[in-house]
Amino acid sequence: MARVPDLDRRRALRQAASVSVATGLYGISFGALAVTAGLSTLQAQALSVLMFTGGSQFAFIGIVGAGGGGLAAAATATLLGARNALYGAVVSPFLQVRGLRRLAAAHVTIDESTAVSTAQRDPQTARLGFWWAGLGVFVLWNACTLVGSVVGDALGDPRRWGLDAAAGAAFLGLLWPRLAARRAQVVAAGAVVVALALTPVTPAGVPVLAAAVVAVVVGWRIPAAASRATVEDT
Fold it and tell me: Is residue 202 part of a domain?
């Protein structure tokens, strides 16, 4: 088996560490929102340890906090978490794990571990990135959930501190460095402006759909305008 270059290993570990820290920190927002929704610290911690998929956890406490039943909350969380099964099909070929390691791999197959692993150039660094990102997020997410749930009462309404927007901010922080091209930055900025403008005046879900439409239109118009400019210059 060929030895993985140290540069590739360091790059994979650096990516895993940055993703783990950025994702783990907004576990504080989950912990604070969970206790505000009526869960105890132990219940919030159990969700982070056993469910361990951020989007599903936020959906669960959102429904419970709005007065919904546990069955409805669990069903919604399950639907959102179903995407992780698709990630499993992506990472399984290069992980090649069996037994208890397979169960552990399934538990930490999340957005972040999949993204880091699939960004690598060979199976060995892909495995390295997967495990370090998955386990790193697991440890920090659970630690920050505990912090958020313990200090949640002292903070008061988490929305005063912007904790309800922490997940979106963290994802934007992870995404923005990849928007190196000017076209990608313009598309992202246009979508954000539209979503923010529509959020106060439209039903939930509409701003996201509108932002997606804007992204498609702007992304299509920019190359078209560039093509016309090239023709005019020649």
Answer: yes
- Report d(CA 109, CA 84) in Å as an integer: 6
The residue among 106, 132, 164 that closes a domain is: 164
Q: How many CB atoms lie within 10 A of CB 179?
A: 15
Decide if 176 contacts 189 (C-beta within 8 A). Answer: no
Let me know if residue 171 belongs to a domain: no
pLDDT tens for the chain, 234 residues: list them. Answer: 455 678 889 999 998 998 898 888 888 888 988 988 889 999 999 999 999 988 888 889 888 888 888 888 888 888 878 888 888 989 999 998 999 999 999 999 998 899 899 888 899 999 999 999 999 999 999 999 999 998 876 666 555 555 555 555 555 555 555 565 666 777 777 777 887 788 778 765 577 677 777 777 766 655 544 434 433 444
Range of the domain at 58: 6-164
Q: Please give the tally of structural domains in the chain.
A: 2
Cβ neighbours of residue 190 under 8 Å, at least 6 residues apart? 214, 215, 218
